[in-house]
Amino acid sequence: MRADQLRFGYKTAHPAVFEFSAAAGQFWAILGRNGAGKSALLKTLAGLLPPLGGEVFLADEKMASLPLLTRARQLGVLLQEELSAYSGHVRDFVNLGGYPWGGDPAGKTDWALRQLAVQQLAGARLDELSGGERQRVRLAQLLAQDTAILLLDEPLQHLDWCQQQHVLQRLRQAAEEEGKTVIAVLHEVQWVEKYCTHAVLLHDEIIQQGRAAELLDPLLLQRLYHCGGRAG
Fold it and tell me: What predicted TM-score, i.e. pTM, was given to this entire model?
């Protein structure tokens, strides 16, 4: 995935132009204070929000020119918003991840349920689960879609400490072992250096990016989050 001279935002563009390239095997975190534009950036990379300038490319093709089905076979997206209107069973919901491929010919549904440790919930109704259970089921559906790129907006919401680590370990595995590109909006700075290979820092006026271990300096994080105490 690549962004060229990208300007993003809902109505007003972030002041900085975003140049970006994420390769297979990389796990990127997008960090910034509330209102910095993290979700707007992710949605623009996903093609759900039109760029205010520049282009997003998938495999050197302009995303805007690709048919929706082609995008869905390359790009999986997890947004913050809950699909609360869905009241069917968990297994059927996860099975929908295979829709771009015409169903589940590779048997990804049961595999994805196991990956997120929710196979025991397969026969339950989605609308009867806890927030954390629903989040893990939504992540299972994303894995079942089996795309080369995963874009996730706050994938750790509703998850407890142990579940957060399990999800991040699974996403790191998707990058390292399966060769996927993972890009996630995260608030949990303490996990970024441990699990992510790269990071994007959205300041008010500038954007910094690079290897996570090199960017997560306490003083830099204090400036990023506008706090005077110890970061993280």
Answer: 0.95
